[in-house]
Amino acid sequence: MFRTVNRDASERGITGLETAIILIAFVVVASVFAFTVLSTGIFASERSKETVFAGLQEAKSSLEPRGATVAYKANRGGTDTVYKVSFIVSNAIDGEPVDLTPPYTADGAATDPDISSGAEYRTVISYNDQNQFMADVPWSVNWLGNDNGDSLLEVGEKAEISVWLLIRDTTQAIGSGTATSYWTADGNGAHGILSSGTLLDKNDKFTLTLAPPSGAVLTVARTLPARLDAIMDLK
Fold first, then answer.
1. 114-152, pLDDT tens digit by residue?
2. What is the pTM of this model?
3. Of 106, 185, 214, 217, which has the highest C-beta tally within 10 A?
4. From CA 73, how far away is CA 69, in angstroms rounded?
5. Other CB atoms within 10 Å distance of the CB of residue 118
6. Domain limits, the chain
């Protein structure tokens, strides 16, 4: 009348060994997942740090203008124009040295500027206005004040950059600023204004872009006054 139930056949328990195996499996999976997450986070953090350092390096290598931008008048065939533009630069935030090895030199002689044959200049200055664009124009540098004798613009140093747009007539006195001939391509690849139809004139706008080997470029944009004087401080 009574039925005997075989509990060993109908019920199975989980042994301690099986529980331990399952627990170990969960721990291993969690460890692998945690390692993957940590590795990804560390990698992202390192990449972010590199990006920040690269940005700081770019900023530290940047230049900033110091003082006035000055234009010098010349007369070409009865037309007043500009043959040279000068401005002063220094390190923006006391950063890394900037290589200002010039492609030309100037010593105040009537033949200025003189090409530096084979000069390995790394800083390039471009010029553009409403009529033309020149990717590489002739420029020279004059160190002002503190100068340790090399071509690197370092902390505490200032450099006057002179951009030459025309050649002056060597038969004229230095102070006359007469320009009677034009730049042609030379060994450095740089040239100035090549056409009499694109000479700078009154109220003309122009832009100079100084691109150092590293760091942000420096842009100098100015407008000529309504009357061209021998020396003009371009505000």
1. 888 777 899 999 999 999 999 999 999 999 988 888 889
2. 0.70
3. 106
4. 13
5. 8
6. 14-60, 63-234
